[in-house]
Amino acid sequence: MRALVVDRSVPAGLRLAEVPDPEPAPHQALIRAAATSLNYGEVKYVIAGQPDGAVPGWDAAGVVERAARDGSGPATGTPVVTLADGGAWAELRAVDTALIGTVPAGADLGAIATVPVAGASALRVLHRIGALPGKRILVTGATGGVGRYAVQLAHQDGAHVIAVTGDPEAHGASLRRLGADEVIAAPWELGEPVDGVVELVGGAHLVDAYARLAEHGHLVSAGHAVQEDITFPPGAFLGNEGRHNRSISSFYLLACTGLGPDLTRLAELVARGALDPGIAWRGTWDKAAEALDALRERRLHGKAVLDLT
Known about the structure:
By secondary structure, the chain is α/β, with parallel strands linked by helices. The protein has eight helices and 15 strands.
């Protein structure tokens, strides 16, 4: 099969190559991928940590080529969306059936490929914050893949959404179309405390956002767009004066259970137009270097999709 493999001898760090087909374990289905979406984290960090010849990639959508031998998961021929720690940038991938969601027939598999890391991360962050109706929810890094999904999902669940972007003038209108009630440049601009924070930037944003949590508020750290030290000032964790019972948490997506139903739900929402996948770049995988450069340089506000067929 063809795949994008790590190759440090070429400028992009990747090249198209022929590699052996994967051999699924009994609890895995073999998927023929139609499209994959690229995430900043894998482009910036994962490729650098992989040996030459490795096939990276977390997100892919396609069709079941061969159902799992243990009888779990979808049948052969089913359109699906998949998540795994590698192997997505290839024509075929073997995936645990617990990490497969089904896709409505006829859906754009390129759009669906944006769902696994970005959509599922946003959904899990909001689950951790708790019931959303009437709550004030802050989303930092709101123009990225996870941020865009978080704004939409929080809005649909009845939250008052405040989106943070480095350039509100340029991105304010699009974020409001997604459901943001307010658009600001930094957490310190907040006028009132918030009940929950979807924190995707790190550094000073995380510190400032935590300082603006209301009593019982919860900040969930799910991204580190900036590589800055996180230093809290003295007294940051005092619980008096309306700061009682505030919390910070983080999680690892692949350690979460029940991701298959999450992927199915998100795929259905994207397929019927209830969620905007926010595709900022799309092309064939022979143009992967162009997408990789745009992501590394933070020139994309949204998702990059590679069509593999």
